[in-house]
Specification:
- With about 500 residues, the protein is of the alpha/beta class.
- The chain contains 16 helices and 24 strands.
- Strands 16-17-18-15-14-20-21 form a seven-stranded mixed β-sheet, with helices on both faces. The chain has a six-stranded mixed β-sheet with strand order 11-10-9-12-13-23, with helices on both faces. Strands 1-5-6-2 form a four-stranded mixed β-sheet.
- Helix 6 (about 165-175) links the parallel strand 9 and strand 10.
- Helix 2 (about 70-85) packs across helix 7 (about 190-200), helix 3 crosses helix 4 (about 105-120) and helix 10 crosses helix 11 (about 300-315).
Length: about 500
């Protein structure tokens, strides 16, 4: 919802430019809710195209100096930032819970996974080394250099307002780029908090900036000629839009899209382990994760027992305000909650069985919060939108299959290819699955296979647009440009003219 700013109503979150809050010229703003209370806690400014241009100009001016900073200087800033973040992570976790709604333990986990990438980026000296080939031809050497791109834009989603920005900007800054971050307008405060911490860590003003807004701000970043690259995480339709628009403007793009992650449970699986995994991966963060398990493919012979075990575990989950020690919090907005809940009626109409209905549950929290409890739906047909759509909420679907082959076929037929998992005690089946599943990230008895920081995160098919995944080796490849230098230093006695094409001796 877009409003005109009225400072007498609530606090207003400004942009962050040149090391300080900045209002810009726009009078438009958006509401920021506390999802557990259902109330507006602040407004956030929405930038105009001109505002974004001013921010990019500031970043461009700062990059001219930051790119020449030594590797040791960049590392010192990142090390200091990591220490400050570790000391004050509880403060950030409280911000995440207040604006996103995830429980505090989940917020702490998000920060920890983001910090892994900060620590990885501190190894910039090793990770940006080039290669050297001596005497490729008589007296001629060839070597490569890795250099920063310039100003890069990051467009991050509401579900991980700290972790996803940390995934991208840690590496971008380490590589010598200047950054303009456009966080989700639904939970924007974490971005400014991180910006302030970077300034405290010694990052020069203008190297990291935050611009808030909606589609106008996004399009301004995608179109601006001085923004060299775009990193994005969000739904598949928007990822495709970002990729097409930004690449048409000549930018480098990594756009991570949506998902419909499957978990295949074979008859020999440990059903208690599999049921725990399904509940944890299906309902953590209220299912608002691109790596959530939203579909379980249960082999017929164990499906009844598996569904019973999942339902039993769901009965013990405590839903409520994430600041009260609950297991699952609210959804991000009332509108999103209503959309997710609507799929329960669709499931019934399509012939599925609603085993656990999360609507109307008792919660440990304010009645006005955006609540929807964990929901379990069995016998979901693959023709149903409950199966096909990325619901992005606490709805776990069970599709019954005859065996490994049918389950694999369903996974590979999906238009998404972000993550998948298999639960089995058969090493041969697991090895075959990791080779045959057309998905970017595979879990074997692991429900959310998010790679550690020194590997890279990203899917296949409609879950990733562009060639570069997030963080890991792909991260430094994405945020640097390679130069090849062919060098000859002549001996003083050498001379002569040869107009022919250079050849190897």
């Amino acid at each position: 919802m877009t409003d005109t700013i009225d400072r007498t109503e609530t606090a207003v979150l400004d942009h962050w430019v040149n090391g300080a809050p900045w209002a810009g010229a726009s009078v438009r703003s958006g509401q920021v809710f506390d999802p557990a209370l259902g109330t507006v806690q602040k407004h956030v400014r929405f930038a105009t195209t001109e505002d974004v241009g001013a921010v990019v100009d500031a970043a461009s001016a700062a990059w001219a100096q930051w790119r020449d900073a030594s590797i040791a200087k960049r590392q010192s800033v990142l090390f200091a930032f990591r220490e400050l973040l570790n000391e004050r992570k509880e403060e950030l976790a409280e911000i995440l819970t207040a604006e996103h709604g995830k429980v505090l333990s989940d917020a702490r986990g998000e920060i920890a996974r983001g910090m892994e990438v900060v620590e990885f980026a501190c190894g910039v000296g090793h990770l940006t080394k080039g290669a050297y080939s001596e005497n490729v031809s008589t007296g001629i050497d060839v070597y490569t250099l890795r250099q920063s791109l310039g100003v890069v834009g990051i467009i991050s989603p509401f579900n991980f307002p700290a972790m996803v920005p940390l995934w991208f900007f840690s590496i971008a800054l380490a590589a010598g780029n200047a950054v303009v971050l456009k966080p989700s307008e639904k939970d924007p405060t974490a971005a400014n908090w991180l910006a302030g911490l970077l300034t405290e860590a010694g990052l020069p003003d203008g190297v990291f900036n935050v611009v808030h807004g909606d589609k106008e701000a996004v399009d301004a970043l995608l179109d601006h000629p001085d923004v060299r690259a775009i990193s994005f995480v969000g739904s598949t339709p928007i990822a495709k839009y970002v990729y097409e628009k930004a690449t048409s403007a000549g930018k480098r793009v990594q756009a991570l899209g949506g998902a419909k992650n499957h978990m295949l449970v074979l008859p020999d699986a440990d059903l208690d382990l599999a049921a725990d995994a399904a509940v944890n991966a299906g309902f953590g963060s209220a299912g608002e994760r691109c790596m959530a398990i939203s579909v379980v493919l249960a082999v017929d012979s164990v499906a009844d027992a598996f569904v019973a075990k999942v339902a039993e575990r769901m009965g013990g989950l405590k839903v409520g305000d994430g600041r009260r020690g609950t297991d699952m919090g609210p959804l991000i907005t009332g509108q999103h909650r209503d959309k997710v809940a609507s799929y329960i009626d669709v499931a019934s109409a399509d012939g599925a069985a609603v085993v656990v209905d999360g609507r109307g549950i008792e919660v440990d929290g304010d009645a006005n919060g955006f609540w929807l409890g964990p929901t379990l739906i069995d016998n979901v047909p693959t023709s149903s939108s409950v199966y096909g759509d990325e619901i992005f909420g606490p709805v776990l679907s069970v599709v019954r299959v005859s065996g490994y082959e049918e389950g694999l076929g369903i996974i590979n037929a999906s238009r998404y290819g972000n993550g998948t998992a298999i639960f089995t005690n058969d090493g041969g089946a697991a090895r075959r699955f990791q080779r045959e599943a057309t998905v970017g990230m595979i879990g074997i008895n692991v429900p959310i296979p998010v790679p550690v920081a020194y590997h890279s995160f990203g899917g296949w098919k409609a879950s990733l647009f562009g060639d570069a995944k997030a963080y890991g080796p792909h991260g430094f490849d994405f945020f640097t440009a390679e130069k090849a230098v062919t060098s000859r230093w002549l001996d003083p006695s050498h001379g002569g003219i040869n107009l022919g094409f250079p050849q190897h001796d």
